[in-house]
Design a protein that fits this description.
Elements: H1 2-14, E1 22-26, H2 29-38, E2 43-47, E3 53-54, E4 62-63, E5 69-70, E6 73-74, H3 79-89, E7 94-97, H4 103-115, E8 123-125, H5 133-141, H6 148-176, H7 187-203, E9 208-217, E10 225-232, E11 235-236, H8 242-252, E12 259-271, H9 279-290, H10 294-306, E13 308-309, E14 314-315, H11 330-344, H12 388-404, E15 409-420, E16 423-434, E17 467-479, E18 486-487, H13 488-498, H14 506-515, E19 519-522, E20 525-528, H15 530-542, H16 549-563, H17 569-590, E21 596-601, E22 608-613, E23 619-623, E24 632-633, E25 649-654, E26 661-667, E27 670-675, E28 683-685, E29 688-693, E30 702-707, E31 713-717, E32 726-727, E33 730-735, E34 742-746, E35 753-756, E36 764-766
Helix pairs in contact: 4-6, 6-16, 6-17, 7-14, 7-15, 9-10, 9-12, 9-13, 10-12
């Protein structure tokens, strides 16, 4: 009787609770949690916490004599994870390996399979591009074996990077006496790009040129408008100096010179939407529109992909974010069509569905573009479940995808030519006739990383033959500008254009060159440090191929060919190894002391100064005659033995403690004010005033320059926290003639603008129009 009762009790306990049969292994706990919600019941979901195995530390980890066969060992911190996975895997009928769908994910899956003590026939690889019910179920129903070609391609990349780093870095350590330095196969190319751009900027010689503008008034015009001189005697107007400009002004002011409308041209154009995001375009757009770094964008996107808690459990909101394909699935296209027609109307959907293809041999078209997994989960509908940063990135992805499937915008472009004797002036503008995709994703107001394709039309009602009244003539001096420094966004674009790196490598490349001290970020721009310049000079001289753009891009192509099984991995390594080893041996013998700077001489003994590194990692200049001469100086200054000369800047501030003048000094956390009286150690925060009164009605405060916690400059009221008025662009000092709001300066690639700070007001004009 007792046995029967026990059996009945056991049956009762198991009712409705299916025993776990299958183990699914992913990389992260967040991903595991989201997939668990989808599968559950018979599936046990566990995270490997990233990579399980790696090369041994402090050694190459592969045997050149045995065809570069690699050696791997379990990462010490992961031994407990491996034991746990094995304990669970031995109880399961099947094990599914589900790391990310790229070469690195394939390699992680292979490493996990190698450490599992279960029959290989019970281990399967599954792959999905999005964490949704359909995608996960389909992946489980169609498992495959591990793709060893992709694994070998990833291992080849690791071996190449290790070979370069472990061979070149010790040479740099010896020459620069800095044991924190490293050389990287791809990061060194990025440093070279930044150094060469800086050299272009330093060598740039500006050239003077002038422009001439005419303020004109038409019969039907409500206000004067400005036209620019574009042609002289039917040739492009090129005015090289002030004398030439003055001659033209005097000729135009002569009696009898008539300003007449000679030609009006209207051209209707269609603007097509841009494709959905790929990794590089998402990184660039997030940098441009949101001010996010490349690494920050990818961290946010990773969370959106792995799953966000929406109240009923975590849901993956976007597809895999490391991709260079613009392709989308038929299901996603159909869902977008339905959404567009339902929410905007049939006229906003094109006659034929939009299909995007990204040309190039290296495009991994197995992936999709970055898109939302559920079209109905609009950014606004789930905003309360997202952080501010997650919402902004998700909205960017959602808007771009929906817009990519919408009808084109129709724009009317108008140009008016005005003849005055032998001179032609022109004014142009545009008007949107049909907004199309711009209704969702308006890219007309992008900042200096984007384009501003339409200039709002301010052309008055004119007809050919109209004689205009000249109100004012003006000439303005300009100088050609050097090429801009790279930003993170433009560097990613250049790396992609050269074929250097792949979607998964852009963020690590940019992070590493800054962490190593080769590159520093100045506002939004990337500039090489002195250390970066010295290291780059030696690598270009002694390891030409390693930092050669074409060679590096070719190596990326070969890695792709290995993944496609058209090249043998160890042959690629063998072809690289022999000439590379010769370069290493040559550099060991011939590389001069890389720290010598020819343009810096010791003020005490006249010997060249060298770049030195302190035990704490800071850089300074030390005499090459050390230890006989112990002169040191800061990198950007001059000094004597063991002196650090400050580069103080004068200020209008007076110390409130002793009434002595205060100067501006540079500190580790930015500029600050310091008292010049050596007995008074008073310091205080530097407040940069704009002289512009706060734009909030009734407030008597002044706008001052401030920085957000992410380092972005903005302008806030001096009465904060009582007044929370802010501007994210530099205040101009003037007021909008339309709505009386404050005007702001906007510095764009297509020309600098003065705009109204009121987003509902469309007032804007070229900055050159102001005196």
């Amino acid at each position: 009787m007792a046995k029967t009762t026990a059996k009945k009790k056991e049956t009762t306990e198991n009712t409705g609770k299916e025993k776990k049969k299958y183990l699914v292994i992913v990389e992260s706990p967040a991903k595991a949690k989201t997939i668990n919600k989808i599968l559950g019941n018979a599936y046990e979901i566990k995270a490997s916490m990233g990579h399980i195995r790696d090369f041994p530390k402090k050694v190459m980890g592969f045997d050149v004599q045995k065809n570069f066969e690699p050696e791997f060992e379990i990462i010490p911190d992961k031994k407990k994870v491996v034991d746990e996975l094995n304990t669970i895997a031995k109880k399961m009928e099947k094990v599914y390996l589900a790391p990310d769908p790229d070469r690195e994910g394939e390699a992680i899956a292979w490493h996990i399979s190698e450490v599992l003590d279960v029959p290989k026939k019970n281990v399967y690889r599954i792959e999905f591009n999005e964490i949704t019910q359909n995608a996960i179920r389909h992946a489980v129903e169609s498992p495959r074996s591990i793709d060893m070609n992709r694994v070998k391609a990833q291992q080849t990349r690791q071996i190449l990077d290790r070979l370069v780093g472990y061979s070149i870095s010790p040479i740099l350590w010896e020459k620069l006496k800095n044991y924190k330095l490293s050389a990287g196969r791809v990061q060194s190319v990025a440093v070279r790009l930044i150094c060469e751009r800086e050299a272009e900027i330093e060598a740039f010689i500006p050239k003077e040129y002038w422009k001439i503008f005419a303020d004109l008034f038409g019969k039907k015009a409500k206000a004067p408008f400005t036209a620019e001189l574009i042609k002289i005697d039917d040739k492009k107007a090129e005015i090289n100096n002030g004398e030439e400009a003055q001659e033209i002004l005097e000729a135009l002011k002569k009696k009898g010179v008539e300003f007449k409308v000679s030609k009006i041209a209207n051209r209707e154009t269609r603007r097509n939407p841009q494709p959905p995001f790929i990794t590089s375009t998402l990184q660039r757009e997030a940098s441009s529109k949101l001010g996010y770094s490349v690494s920050k964008t990818m961290q946010i996107a990773q969370k959106l992909y792995e799953g966000i808690e929406l109240g009923s459990g975590p849901i993956g909101l976007i597809t895999y974010m490391r991709t260079d394909s613009t392709r989308i699935s038929d299901e996603a296209r159909d869902a977008a069509k339905e959404y567009i027609i339902d929410h905007f109307g049939a006229k906003y959907y094109p006659k034929e569905p939009r299909v995007y293809t990204k040309k190039g041999k290296n495009v991994q078209d197995a992936h999709e573009a970055i898109r939302p997994t559920y079209i109905d989960k609009s950014p606004e509908s789930i905003k309360s479940h997202l952080t501010s940063e997650q919402y902004k990135v998700y909205k960017l992805i959602w808007d771009r995808f929906i817009a990519s499937q919408m009808e084109s915008a129709v724009v009317n472009n108008t140009t008016v030519d005005i003849a005055a004797d032998r001179y032609i002036f022109r004014i142009g503008g545009s008007k949107i006739l049909f907004d199309g995709f711009l209704k969702v994703y308006d890219d007309r107001n992008e900042d200096d990383e984007g384009e501003s394709p339409e200039k709002p039309s301010n052309i008055p009602d004119l007809k050919e033959g109209d004689v205009l009244e000249l109100v004012k003539l003006d000439s303005k001096q300009y100088f050609t500008q050097p090429p801009p420094r790279y930003t993170e966004a433009s560097l990613v674009k250049t790396l992609e254009e050269y074929g250097i790196g792949r979607p998964s490598t852009y963020a690590p490349i940019i992070s590493k060159v800054q962490q190593r001290g080769y590159v520093e970020k100045i506002e939004k721009s990337l500039a090489p440090t002195l250390l970066g310049k010295v290291v780059n000079e030696q690598l270009v001289k002694h390891f030409t191929n390693i930092v050669d753009f074409k060679f590096t891009a070719q190596m990326e192509t070969q890695l792709d060919d290995i993944a496609e099984n058209t090249l043998v991995w160890n042959k690629v390594l063998a072809d690289f190894y022999t000439p590379f080893t010769e370069s290493v041996n040559n550099a060991k013998e011939k590389m001069e002391d890389a720290g010598i700077l020819n343009d810096k001489l010791c003020p005490n003994c006249g010997k060249p100064m060298k770049l030195r590194t302190s035990r704490w990692g800071s850089q300074f200049l030390g005499c090459s005659g050390y230890p006989e001469c112990k002169t040191m100086m800061p990198i950007n200054g001059e000094g004597k033995d063991k002196e650090v000369v400050r580069e103080d800047k004068p200020s209008d501030e007076v110390c409130e403690k002793c009434n002595s003048p205060m100067v501006i000094r540079k500190g580790p956390y930015g500029d600050y004010l310091a008292c010049t009286n050596e007995e008074c150690k008073n310091r205080k925060k530097l407040i940069i005033k704009t002289g512009v009164k706060c734009g909030k009605e009734g407030c008597e405060g002044e706008l001052i320059q401030r920085k957000s916690r992410f380092g972005k400059v903005f302008y806030g009221c001096s009465n904060y926290p009582d007044c929370d008025f802010v501007l994210w662009n530099e205040p101009n000092g003037g007021k909008c003639p339309k709505c009386s709001s404050l005007l702001i300066n906007r510095y764009l690639k297509k020309g600098n603008k003065i705009s109204c700070s009121n987003k509902e007001c469309d007032y804007e004009k070229d900055m050159e129009e102001t005196n």
